[in-house]
Amino acid sequence: MRLSEFWALVDEVLGxxxxxxxxxxxxxxxxxxxxxxxxxDAGVEPRDVWHALADALDVPEPQRWGSDVRRPAPPRSx
Length: 78
Fold this sequence. Notes:
Elements: H1 3-14, H2 16-25, H3 36-41, H4 46-56
Helix pairs in contact: 1-2, 1-4
């Protein structure tokens, strides 16, 4: 998953204003207490950040990958 794909999913699944705020403010235990933005800035793979954020927000699996049914779910690497 590219960084641009991460932000596209944040915007589509969570809504741009809310998603951007959550990415900046939500501390994620799965990412050692970093926010999504901090983890991305630290070099954590965007797919790992997306999984951690979606898990923390209890985003249902069918909604996690947006409306593009051809978009494959990125595998977890952790």
